[in-house]
Design brief:
Elements lengths: L11 H6 L8 E2 L7 E6 L5 E6 L8 H14 L24 E5 L4 E2 L6 H18 L16 H14 L6 H16 L9 E4 L8 E3 L6 E4 L6 E4 H12 L14 H14 L6 H4 L2 H22 L13 H21 L1 H11 L4
Antiparallel strand pairs: 1-2, 2-3, 3-4, 5-7, 6-9, 7-8
Helix pairs in contact: 3-7, 4-5, 4-9, 5-9, 5-10, 6-9, 7-11, 9-10
């Protein structure tokens, strides 16, 4: 398949590869990683057209094909890859491979609005995990470990030392001191078995029905792989239970949303979730919050994060500094409610 022009909204060679109507192509969603569009096929069906960030090798689509086939076989709704007219899963491009997926009707949320949505998110994620538990697949795209708190703290320390002349250094260094202290106050997470997990279960990676709070399916499956489950749960709860945007310094951790999310997960995961995994729910959430703060604070100095919003922040560094502050604000909110959250987790996840 020939290479395409990544700068075009609807390159004719891409639309022709899947027999899409070029006039129907329009942007879809607010994601910062993959370029995503909605397009109508010549058969009248709506499709999702994506240009995948080069962060992911094109072979990740072979992983997605295996994962989604497994989910579908177990009755879990999922978008499926649509092959080109030549039978290929993707079209290569130096700026990132193109692919097409089936379109799952519904809506994507930027934030959880009520406990019903949180509960549904927990139920769906547990169903996703259980369905993939027996997946026998060697992942072609080997994603580097994402959740390694010690590594992220070391990267932050190096960034503070290296970028002393950066205009944001003083603010970032002060924030870094808070981050180091916050992580030191948390107990280390125990080693648990590797599970097949989504890898990025933020709320915007779930589809909900258009006219209600029922969660339908998980999106953006490039990150699916094997990882310790507490990291996945911590990442989910930190996203779903923050009542403010990620870069809002007024972030607050909602105990009501956490209770609903944990209950939804616990009900769907009953008999499958291990006690040692369930026992880490609150501590894993706190750990991910501080780890993300460390990542964002380092990115503020390294200017390395690939997504930022120039409409709200004048520079990439300032957006990342706001992200770091937002994570610490939500973390402080969690700590202030720690006894209650531990009680809620024990009840929802059936801990003794």
């Amino acid at each position: 398949m020939g290479r395409v022009n990544a700068n075009a909204l609807a390159d004719p060679r891409v639309t022709a590869a899947w027999n899409l109507d070029p006039a129907s192509v329009r942007p879809l969603g607010t994601g910062l990683i993959n370029r995503t569009f909605l397009a109508r096929g010549r058969d009248g069906e709506w499709r999702v057209l994506q240009q995948v960030n080069p962060l992911f090798a094109p072979e990740v689509n072979e992983d997605i094909e295996a994962v989604t086939a497994h989910l579908a076989a177990r009755g879990v709704p999922t978008p499926r890859l649509v092959r080109t007219v030549d039978g290929e899963l993707f079209v290569t491009d130096p700026a990132g491979a193109w692919r097409v997926l089936t379109h799952v009707p519904g809506r994507v949320l930027d934030a959880v609005a009520n406990p019903a949505q949180a509960g549904e998110a927990g139920r769906l994620l547990a169903s996703f995990h259980r369905a993939l538990d027996d997946l026998d697949h060697q992942f072609r795209h080997a994603r580097p470990p994402v959740h390694e708190p010690a590594r992220h703290l070391a990267n932050l320390a190096l960034a503070v030392e290296t970028h002393r002349r950066h205009k944001l250094h003083a603010a970032a260094a002060a924030l870094a001191d808070e981050i180091f202290s916050a992580m030191a106050a948390l107990p280390a997470l125990p080693a648990t078995p590797l599970r097949v997990v989504h890898g990025d279960p933020k709320i915007s990676n779930l589809v909900f029905v258009a006219d209600g709070d029922r969660a339908v399916c998980m999106l953006d499956l490039d990150t699916v792989g094997r990882m310790q489950l507490p990291f996945e749960l911590g990442d989910a709860f930190r996203s779903w239970c923050n009542v403010a945007s990620e870069d809002d310094p007024r972030g607050h951790f909602s105990a009501a949303l956490f209770a609903a999310a944990a209950a939804g997960y616990g009900t769907a995961a009953a008999g499958w979730l291990r006690a040692e995994e369930a026992a880490t729910a609150v501590n894993a959430t706190a750990t991910i919050q501080v780890e993300l703060a460390a990542r964002f604070c380092a990115d503020a100095l390294n200017e390395s994060y690939f997504g930022w919003n120039p409409a709200l922040f004048p520079t990439r560094g300032e957006h990342n500094l706001a992200r770091a502050r937002g994570q610490l604000a939500v973390h402080r909110s969690l700590l202030a409610q720690r006894p209650l959250l531990d009680e809620l987790a024990a009840r929802a996840l059936e801990l003794d």
